Amino acid sequence: MxxxxxxxxxxxxxxxxxxxxxxxxxxxAYAEVDLELAMQVLEEAARFTGEVLAPLNGPGDxxxxxxxxxxxxxxxxxxxAYRAYVDGGWPALxxxxxxxxxxxxxxxxxxxxxxxxxxxxxxxxYTGIAHGAYLCLKTHASAALQQRYLPGIISGETLPTMxxxxxxAGSDIGLLRSRAEPLADxxxxxxxxxxxxxxxxxxxxxxxxxxxxxxxxxxxxxSRGLSLLLVPKWLENGERNAVYCDGLEHKLGIRGSATCALxxxxxxxxxxxxxxxGLAAMFVMMNSARLHVGxxxxxxxxxxxxxxxxxxxxRRQMRAPRRPEQVPAAAADPxxxxxAMRRILLELRVRSxxxxxxxxxxxxxxxxxxxxxxxxxxxxxxxxxxxxTPIVKASFTEQGFSLASKALQVFGGYGxxxxxPIEQTLRDSRIAMIYEGSNEIQANDLxxxxxxGDGGEAFGVLLGELRAEVAVGQASRVxxxxxxGEVCERLENLLPEVRALSIEDSExxxxxxxxxxxxxxxxxxxFAWARSARCVAGLAxxxxxxxxxxxxxxxxxxxxxxxxxxxxxxxxAARLPLPFVAGE
Length: 584
Known about the structure:
single chain, 17 helices, Butyryl-CoA Dehydrogenase, subunit A, domain 2, 57% helix, two-stranded antiparallel sheet, alpha+beta, Butyryl-Coa Dehydrogenase, subunit A, domain 1
């Protein structure tokens, strides 16, 4: 697999779209970070992902993980690559300097995550939950647990897992049965079975820290009775803890990632946070993970775009139709000249670059939410992050799979074979729509909790950001500003309608949620490209960046924004009840 990180577009987003350097200077934690330093970091990340991880992607998929006598062996080269990752200091990138982290902005970590997932999704699964686990322990663990286990996570010497799912409990974690019994020394004896645990056993690090949801003896029923416990693979006295891997899942994709069934047999663990408060502690980790999963979708889209673009420039088939001003037809043209292929390639480019701007925007708000000295600004940033997270997770992962499928079409029959990497990208991308809260759950979370739940307050904050772009764009005479303004009007007018229908019919918002989330995603894509067009409007007319961004913005508003009407119709059609498929 050949992968080259899109450093030019990453710089465009940081420098022009976000104007991140100006915000960093206003945040004490990042006051010494400038664009030059940021790009140096990303250039090193590009070198690691392109030269170390990408070459392992295909071989790791073909080889997969091996399970023998309770031990898991990752594909050849994975452990060596992980050691290079640790030696490069990448696990500490966005961690607190007071805890030996590097203290860099989370938006740079978002760019790193995109590169990791684009170059080798299976390998990146081992590291993907680490930052969320760091935040979880930093926020909720006792001082003793932090002192014992945070340094290993920050340095990369240990890797964590998130142990939620059980055979009978997937999305409904209230059905979990794992138990935790208190012991005299203040620890707990943890027993139960967990399923689909990414990195539950591997050979990248000696120790593995399992963050496990379980029930204490006095726990109430349902999700409110869950507690979070830290269960290490190895105890401080050098003994192996009673955590066992019973096998690996045989999967459609990400085959180099060890997806394990784990058995806890009175394993020793320690409570993280309050008893019965495990869900609040776990959600610190899950919210970080959901943003990272959204970045997986971006990584797949970028990998698919690069593969399809490179192939389309080389593959010659038939004569492309010519307009009168074009050069005479050749016997056979590169397929990127054919209109059908041009449309696919443009969609790949425009959606990928738009997702990058929006994904980094969400991460940038995370930085503001955690580091701003202004309480009002922190509150606003927190609202936006909460609203954007389910949109990024669900819409990006859906686009990652959809765009990989469209990219495969560019390859024709070759794309369906293992000769080219696009078939692996398609397989690897599918899981992201399911785990860390399925996309249907993300849609319900967005509409019922994040939009209707607070009376539309946070949604109004988001619309305020879009309207601010409309005003600046109109003042700058950006042609797309008026179209974005119309999007804002229609969204604002829709909300009272959705609220009224939800009061009349309690099932309505669940029927409408999927289309509502995609409607928001389409609106944000229009916002991303209206801002991109404004950012380049002042460049010289012969500047290639100006031409490309304006062409892409035009494609977005002409070819992709019409999705808004279909999605809006879906939200309104949901007022009609659905029949029961099984005749209940």
